[in-house]
Amino acid sequence: MMSANGNTAELDFLGRPVIAITGLGLVSSLGRGVDDNWDALSSGRSGIHRIERFSTDSLRTTISGSVDFMGPGSETSTGLSYMMAEAAGSEAVRMAGLADDDFGGPLFLAAPPVEMEWQHRLALDAMDGATIEEAGYDRLLQIAHSRPDKAIYNLTQCSRISELLADRLGTRGLPITLSTACASGASAIQLGVEAIRRGETDRAIAIGTDGSITQESLIRFSLLSALSTNNEYPEKASKPFSKDREGFVMAEGAGALVLESLSAAKARGARILGVIHGCGERADDFHRTRSKPDGSPIIATIAAGIADAGMEPSDIDYINAHGTSTPENDRMEATGLAAVFGEALKTTPISSNKSMIGHTLTAAGAIEAVFSVLSIQNGLLPPTINYEVPDPAIELDTVPNKARPAEIATVLSNSFGFGGQNACLVIGREPRH
């Protein structure tokens, strides 16, 4: 079989193009750029801190993994999400050896759901002049309609970030924006993989970004009893798989991957950083925020990802866990993994990046995919920090508290989200023959 550029195509076990990873980009509370993030993560350093961006008076949770160093333009969730996505995306494109303003392939973006922020609502309220008596959000929409403000309009459009990125990076075609909760970043990567497998493009860029920490978002997650309230010691608040875990820490960041068919990457002499062997995706219709008690959707997602890679559980060397540090999520993830891996799970290392960076929500799947590639490249298992009180109900090798050297050929990266969104990626060092 020949590829479009005339070189012999590199195919997987199903005759599909092998998906090469040729560029990576990162922004998180640990810093800006791949090198700074990996240095901090592999050292077991936490980026979680007290919130200083806004007043936390009367909030139950006053800590986060917010990104506070992006400068002017990052004052809104949309602005910050764009700036982090642009930083991660341009880093990934440059690493791939491509022009960061003429990428030449499609963009798949995972972005947070966008709505009118309080600063916009208050601005509209001030415009009212007591002419509209209806209270609430509908009233604000009426004011916005009667007094159009392009700046507010742009900040409340979910597609705005991808439109700006498409112009900045020079992507091709209509940019795709998706928001599938905590699975979003992995879902964006899956869309890029599938587009290349179908022969629609030789390359794609997948980016996950989330800069949505506000007072309102903290209140919403607090009402779900989902957030940690360990405010006194922020760096110790996220403790995945520990018996004393009590909630996740909301965080911000962006991760980007340049994906190419292996044949196209080789034809232009690109450095191959890793490969996407497989993607798994299944929905859970049990509850808006809870997993089905028997874990069957999580089990099916993990099994589908491994099967799509043409592998067995025994082929997985390391699991990059979803590992949010909530009581139910960690238990359900361990239950799902045990059903797929059996006794082998006790000796398969599994750790959670969220113990250090917090939960970056729509960006998590992309950020953790980048860290998975870096784990393979560096032969190092990142630790699960704050693992001081093991949970006897969850028997796992969590790589506790300190990174561990290891030979890693294949990583399973899990992303399970509110709303029943589940996605898994199987990432490898090199193509399988």
UniProtKB/TrEMBL annotation:
The family this protein is said to belong to: Belongs to the thiolase-like superfamily. Beta-ketoacyl-ACP synthases family.
GO biological process: fatty acid biosynthetic process
Coiled coil stretches, renumbered: none
Keyword GTP-binding: no
UniProt domain Ketosynthase family 3 (KS3): residue ranges: 16-429
GO molecular function, a single term: 3-oxoacyl-[acyl-carrier-protein] synthase activity
Transmembrane regions: none
One Pfam assignment: ketoacyl-synt
Keywords from the named record: Transferase
Highest taxon of source: Bacteria
InterPro entries, alphabetized: Beta-ketoacyl_synthase, Ketoacyl_synth_AS, Ketoacyl_synth_C, Ketoacyl_synth_N, PKS_Beta-ketoAc_synthase_dom, Thiolase-like
Presence of the UniProt keyword ATP-binding in the record: no
Pathway, per record: Lipid metabolism; fatty acid biosynthesis
Family matches, as NCBIfam families: PRK06501.1
GO cellular component labels: cytosol
Species this chain originates from: Aurantimonas manganoxydans (strain ATCC BAA-1229 / DSM 21871 / SI85-9A1)
Protein's name according to its UniProt entry: Beta-ketoacyl synthase
Gene3D superfamilies: 3.40.47.10
